[in-house]
Amino acid sequence: QVQLAESGGGLVQAGGSLRLSCVASGRTLTNYVLGWLRQAPGKEREVVSAITWSEGRTYYADSVKGRFTISRDDAKKTMYLYMNSLKPDDTAVYYCALKRRGEATYDVWGQGTQVTVSS
C-alpha cells in the first residue's frame, strides 16, 4: 500500500513562488501516474498537473501552463510542484494523488496542503 504526504504549502503574495513536495512510501511507483490536484472553496476539484513515474511524461492544466513545473526524484520517491507567478485564483488545498496508468480515477491521496495567494 502506498502512502502519500504533501508539504510546502503556505501564504504567498501574488507573483510569488512556492514549491510543493509529495513523498511516496510503500510500493514501487512504476506503472503509476502521480498528480497534483486542487480544490478551492465552492469549486470542483481539478487536476493541476501529473507525471508518469517511469517516463516522466507530464500534463498541465491550461490555467497553470508556463507557471507551474512538475518533476520527480525517483531515488527519493518524491514529486515536486514548482509554482511561479502565483495568482489569487491559485488559492486552494493541493493534494498529491496516485493512480495506475490507464485508469481515470486517482485512488490514493495525501492529506492536502493549503496554498493561499494574497492579492
Bin the helical content.
under 10%
Low-confidence stretches: none
End-to-end CA span = 40 Å
Strand percentage, roughly? over 45%
Radius of gyration: 13 Å
For the residues shown, what is the average pLDDT? 96
The SSE order reads: EEEEEEEEEEE
**DSSP E strands, number:** 11
User: What is the subunit organization of this protein?
Assistant: single chain
Assign the structural class, choosing from mainly alpha, mainly beta, alpha/beta, alpha+beta, or little secondary structure: mainly beta
Global outline: globular
Report the major sheet: 7 strands, mixed
Number of helices: 0
Structural notes for this entry:
- The protein contains no helices and 11 strands.
- The strands form 2 sheets. Strands 2, 4, 5, 6, 9, 10 and 11 form a 7-stranded mixed β-sheet that branches.
Can you describe this structure in just a few lines?
The protein has strands spanning 3-7, 10-13, 18-25, 32-39, 46-52, 58-60, 68-73, 78-83, 92-100, 108-109, 113-118. The protein is mainly β and 119 residues long.
List keywords for this structure.
119 residues; mainly beta; 0% helix
Fold topology:
Blueprint: E1 3-7, E2 10-13, E3 18-25, E4 32-39, E5 46-52, E6 58-60, E7 68-73, E8 78-83, E9 92-100, E10 108-109, E11 113-118
Parallel strand pairs: 2-11
Antiparallel strand pairs: 1-3, 3-8, 4-5, 4-9, 5-6, 7-8, 9-10, 9-11
